[in-house]
Write a structure and sequence with these properties.
The complex is a heterodimer. Chain A is of the alpha+beta class. Chain A has helices at 10-27, 37-53, 72-84, 95-108, 111-122, 227-230, 238-249, 255-271, 278-303, 310-333, 345-352, 363-374, and strands at 5-6, 128-131, 147-151, 154-165, 172-178, 189-195, 201-206, 215-226. In chain B, α6 packs antiparallel against α8, α9 (222-250) runs antiparallel to α10 (256-281) and α10 (256-281) packs antiparallel against α13. The chains are: A alpha+beta, B alpha+beta. The interface between A and B is large, with 55 and 53 residues.
Chain lengths: 382, 321
């Protein structure tokens, strides 16, 4: 058929799959990942180092920055095998470094920033957290008020951030602050690298409803950072820099999580012998197949150009499917939900899933974005 | 094993040869004449639309299940008669039985076929748009049954706005057991449903942009905007999954049956949900027969019945490997 081309020879891909499978089988940690504190830091760094040494780190990163520049098809195959092997969730303390901060530094950082930070992220020597949300700026991120006063070649940070996952165990934070006090909304914001051990930083862990103290409040009391080392993408240009990161979050970075969810729903379907719950699980199985179809097609399309607006549809589809899947799982496994499936059981997943339709823009905001940017519907009068 | 294909050119090709649907099959045609495609059938056949996936030596275009499914999405948007999947499935079945001549007659529009389904009691048949004595095509779990329509022009009832004939249990003229053919038929129906979901979305969005209340287009209100977003997600998911399943089926991959059942399940829900929301977004007008919104809901429900209902589809999906 002339109009259809294979992205890569099937044999090459299957050989790659065999290598991935063999390596994962031999190397995945045998005990479950700790969810919080210093143990979780050690676990995540160890696992990242292990993948780095095995040549499996930074699959999506360009090779000039230590990555492997794999094709999207290879990334998909890797994540399929990763999910099948029940390797540690990628939604852990390494996520921000590998999927937000690293790619942002690659896109907008200086040569020195790249040389210093990128190898540390890839090889499991540094953990990153995100400092975007504030108590008064949740879905409306552009209203952020955390201040950065420019004094000579330094920025002095004063204010507060919240919902900063793993800030208590992180080495660096990607931080959005307002460096122009006269500015409002998207202007006058700066994206910077903030070491977490600087004087004036106080971190207060916050327990989530799912149990672990995973995210944190961070307070900045006259914290000084050098502009040249810290600022990425230019002073006052932080919104644009941040958007590069958020775009990545809604693109291929989610593949691992999406494939993981598909795998877990397939397990649910295989375990389901209850005729009452079966129709629900059947629908979930169909939805999981659609998630796979959409995310693969979107990722492959992103490879040859900038990601289209469909990413926001997939993101929301994933979030709501994750909630419905864990809801059905708790009903299916009943009291056994604690023991069965996954590292920490479906009961944990069920509670954790409530964050899916809140974090990174609530489902309501996502629907506004879809309505306005994808469908072209008008914004309401405010 | 996952198959990766760039379908950009395939989509362009299918878009180009299905474009005449815009003028040949306006949805408004169904206001006056709900039964079949009547005199238009010859034109559809001439355009090669009944023979997209048929081998060239049987008078077909010689493309795969992928092009067939992409085209069926477009035809679904235009609410093509169920005669369409009936003809395509019958022609495929005939080729597989070694009767390429008869398949060619169907593809050329010279011989007609209508879609029929068994009622819950397992015995009686309901034939859709069967306004003549042409063959009846029944999609079964593992293949297809072909029956003669003894009742000829008798259509004695209406179901979801289409003329239907109820026919007492009869032995098929012939049956074909061929799971791949059954999947192909289900995929065709799923593609039509995905098309319905997409068109219902487009019509709702278009209306929400122009209809004004309280001094602004209703699409500016979040309650309406969010309905539209939900419709966009449902249509996108259904279309992507149908295409993904089509690639798997065309490549004879291990997961083809699983994906086709999944696509049909999802497309059934997307079509009925989107058709319902399109009516809601159209408000009072949407409930009137003068607005075409109801046609999409009824077409979705008819296809639902033709594949045995969503319960059957869910059961099949849970059994698929």
């Amino acid at each position: 058929m002339p109009s259809v081309q294979a992205a890569m020879s099937a044999d090459t891909l299957e050989q790659f799959r065999a290598e991935a499978r063999a390596w994962l089988r031999a190397n995945i940690p045998t005990h479950a990942a700790p969810l919080e504190g210093p143990e979780s830091r050690a676990f995540v760094l160890d696992w990242q180092r292990c993948m780095y040494e095995g040549g499996w780190a930074g699959l999506t990163w360009p090779s000039e920055f230590g990555g492997r520049s794999l094709t999207v098809a290879q990334q998909i195959v890797w994540f399929e095998e990763y999910a099948r092997a029940h390797a540690p969730s990628t939604h852990n303390a390494s996520f921000v470094g590998l999927n937000h901060a690293g790619p942002t530094i690659i896109a907008c950082g200086t040569d020195q920033q790249k040389a210093f930070h990128l190898p540390k992220i890839l090889s499991g020597q540094a953990i990153w957290c995100q400092g975007f949300s504030e108590p008064g700026s949740g879905s409306d991120l552009a209203s952020l008020r955390c201040k950065g006063r420019i004094e000579g070649d330094e920025i002095v940070i004063a204010g507060q951030k919240i919902w900063s996952s793993y800030a208590d165990i992180a080495d660096y934070q990607e931080l959005l602050i307002r460096t122009d006090p006269e500015s409002s909304r998207h202007k006058g914001i700066t994206w910077l690298i903030c070491p977490m051990d600087l004087p004036g930083i106080t971190v207060r862990p916050i327990k989530t409803m799912a149990g672990p103290a995973k995210f944190c409040e961070v307070f900045y009391d006259q914290v000084r950072v050098p502009i040249a080392e810290a600022v990425v993408g230019g002073v006052g240009n932080g919104w644009k820099t941040a958007m590069a990161t958020l775009g990545f979050e809604r693109g291929t970075a989610s593949l691992a999580l999406q494939i993981g969810l598909v795998e877990r729903i397939e397990k649910l379907a295989a375990d389901c012998t209850d005729p009452v719950i079966a129709p629900r699980i059947a629908d979930l199985r169909a939805d999981a197949a659609a998630l796979k179809a959409m995310s693969y097609s979107f990722a492959l399309a992103s490879e040859s150009g900038t990601p289209g607006p469909e990413g926001s549809l997939i993101r929301l589809y994933f979030a709501e499917l994750a909630k419905r899947a864990s809801d059905a799982a708790v009903d299916l496994y009943g009291i056994g939900a604690v023991q069965l499936a996954g590292d920490h059981g479906w009961a944990y997943d069920y509670l954790e899933a409530f964050s899916e339709t809140i974090a990174g823009g609530t489902a309501e905001i996502q629907r506004n974005i879809i309505g306005e940017r994808v469908l072209g519907l008008p914004r309401g009068k405010v | 094993m996952t198959i990766f294909r760039d379908l950009t050119e395939t989509r362009e090709l299918v878009d180009s040869f299905t474009r005449p649907a815009e003028t040949l099959l306006p949805v408004s045609r169904l206001r006056d004449d709900p039964a079949g495609e009547g005199a238009r059938w010859g034109s559809l056949a001439e355009l090669g639309w009944l023979a997209i996936g048929l081998p060239e030596d049987a008078g077909g275009v010689g493309l795969s299940a992928v092009e067939e499914a992409l085209a069926a999405q477009t035809f679904g948007r235009h609410l093509i008669s169920t005669d369409y999947p009936a003809a395509v499935i019958a022609a495929h079945a005939l080729v597989r039985r070694g009767e390429a001549g008869l398949a060619g007659e169907i593809a050329a529009g010279a011989r007609r076929a209508h879609l029929a389904f068994r009622q819950r009691n397992g015995a009686d048949l309901v034939a859709i748009d069967a306004t003549d004595g042409a063959w009846l095509v029944v999609l079964t779990e593992q293949g297809v049954d072909i029956l003669e329509n003894g009742t000829a022009t008798l259509h004695d009832a209406e179901h979801w706005g289409r003329p239907v004939s109820r026919i007492a249990a009869a032995e098929p003229m012939w049956s074909l057991t061929d799971p791949e053919l059954a999947q192909r038929g289900r995929l065709l129906v799923a593609a039509m449903l995905a098309g319905i979901a997409a068109e219902a979305r487009s019509r709702a969005v278009e209306y929400a942009q122009v209809r004004e209340q309280f001094g602004q287009p209703i699409g500016a209100f979040q309650a309406v905007k969010h309905h539209c977003a939900n419709m966009a997600i449902a249509a996108y998911a259904a279309q992507e999954l149908v295409t993904f399943a089509a690639v798997s089926l065309a490549e004879d991959a291990d997961d083809a049956a699983h994906l086709v059942h999944a696509a049909l399940n999802l497309a059934l829900r997307a079509a009925r949900d989107n058709a319902g929301l399109n009516i809601q977004v159209h408000g009072g007008m949407g409930f009137s027969e003068e607005c075409d919104a109801h046609l999409f809901l009824k077409a979705a429900r008819l296809l639902d019945a033709a594949v045995g209902g969503i319960g059957t589809v869910r059961g099949a999906l849970m059994r698929a490997a």
